[in-house]
Amino acid sequence: MKVTKTLGQFIIEKQADFPYAKGELSRLLRDIGIAAKLVNREVNKAGLVDIIGEAGTENIQGENQKKLDVYANEQFISALTYGGECCIIVSEENDEYLHIEGEVSKDAKYIVAIDPLDGSSNIDVNVNVGTIFSIYRRKSTSGKPTMDDILQKGVEQVAAGYITYGSSTMLVYTTGKGVNGFTLDPSIGEFCLSHPNMRIPQDGHIYSINEGHYTHFPDGVKKYLKYCQVEDKVTNRPYTSRYIGSMVADLHRNLILGGIFIYPVTASAPNGKLRLVYECNPMAFLIEQAGGKASNGYERILELDVNHLHQRSAIFIGSENMVNKAEEMMSFFSPQQTKKNFNGDVVIQ
Ligand SMILES: O=P(O)(O)OC[C@H]1O[C@](O)(COP(=O)(O)O)[C@@H](O)[C@@H]1O
Ligand SMILES: [Mg+2]
Ligand SMILES: [Mg+2]
């Protein structure tokens, strides 16, 4: 008989892996699971309730917030606030970080960065969306957490993961000891271990990139796309193009099947589109823990300096051999050349 292990049971079981474990991180992951269930409930009936469409407000990125962006943001902020383990929340939907004060969280040690609803452009059309979270432990031991606590490099993460709201709802996370996936069983309202010890294939045949921006791609990316699209029986090319437009959904597929996801610098996003703190770093930590690789085409994502909350970065992430090949193509062009191209300077071939 198959034994069902819930997320809560798994977290407690794994607690022993950590020297300073007093249950705080476990409770924090529990709180994230609670908010995920509330968001899942609204996502599942998005067409029936007044949760689709624009909220009429804009976030600091200049994006029109969707009602579900705002709802998801509220659910995660309140679950993390009431849970008492979180002292700082950084959210895509909040200009500034939130300092959680009050008796409940006076000894809170964790900083949580969150993309409450990823893939906002897909909400109203019933296509997979997600949530991304990244967890750090504060370094300073007393007083209000400092910017050094908040702007830590990706390598300092103690946990990271995502929730994908699709044909089923899954929570996938790492605490630096491998990656595990849990599927929400609506009949018992629990996330149950369904994908233990997830590993991304070292090689894959799927590339995910918004080719609509092709003309403004760096030459290294154009070169890599040509490589993906050339006929070659030995290396099983051409590869297949798959792009959902929700980072979580595209990466979840590639995590299981193998593949590469690329969001490079483009004319409209000269520093990349995706945000380092709550999109690139958590997904890079998770994919590396699953045996994959993540860079900005030149440097490891997790080693990038973090200078501000909503900083953007180019990202090449997925199966190790595919990211290596893409980096090889990028290496023909220096980062400066890559940057200069779409400022209208002469393309250097
Ligand atoms: O529409 P584009 O330019 O391809 O961008 C799609 C990317 O933007 C995002 O939607 C950005 O995330 P948000 O929806 O959280 O703002 C990613 O999920 C996705 O990979
Ligand atoms: Mg996002
Ligand atoms: Mg978002």
TrEMBL record:
Recorded metabolic or biological pathway in which this protein acts: Carbohydrate biosynthesis; Calvin cycle
Residues holding Mg(2+) 1: 92, 115, 117
Cofactor-binding details, from the entry: Binds 2 magnesium ions per subunit.
Cellular localization per UniProt: Cytoplasm
Binding site for substrate: 118-121, 210, 243, 273
Residue sites binding Mg(2+) 2 per the record: 115, 118, 279
Record keywords, A-Z: Carbohydrate metabolism, Cytoplasm, Hydrolase, Magnesium, Metal-binding
Domain of life of the native organism: Bacteria
Gene Ontology annotations of biological process type: fructose 1,6-bisphosphate metabolic process; fructose 6-phosphate metabolic process; fructose metabolic process; gluconeogenesis; sucrose biosynthetic process
Domain Fructose-1-6-bisphosphatase class 1 C-terminal span(s) in chain numbering: 200-330
SUPFAM superfamilies with a match to the protein in the record: Carbohydrate phosphatase
Catalytic reaction equation(s): beta-D-fructose 1,6-bisphosphate + H2O = beta-D-fructose 6-phosphate + phosphate
GO cellular component assignments: cytosol
Residue ranges occupied by any Fructose-1-6-bisphosphatase class I N-terminal domain in the UniProt entry: 5-196
Cofactors that this protein relies on: Mg(2+)
Example GO molecular function: fructose 1,6-bisphosphate 1-phosphatase activity
Enzyme Commission code: 3.1.3.11
Protein family membership: Belongs to the FBPase class 1 family.
Oligomer and partners: Homotetramer.
Name listed for the protein in its UniProt record: Fructose-1,6-bisphosphatase class 1
Biological source species: Mucilaginibacter auburnensis
Phylogenetic lineage: Bacteria, Pseudomonadati, Bacteroidota, Sphingobacteriia, Sphingobacteriales
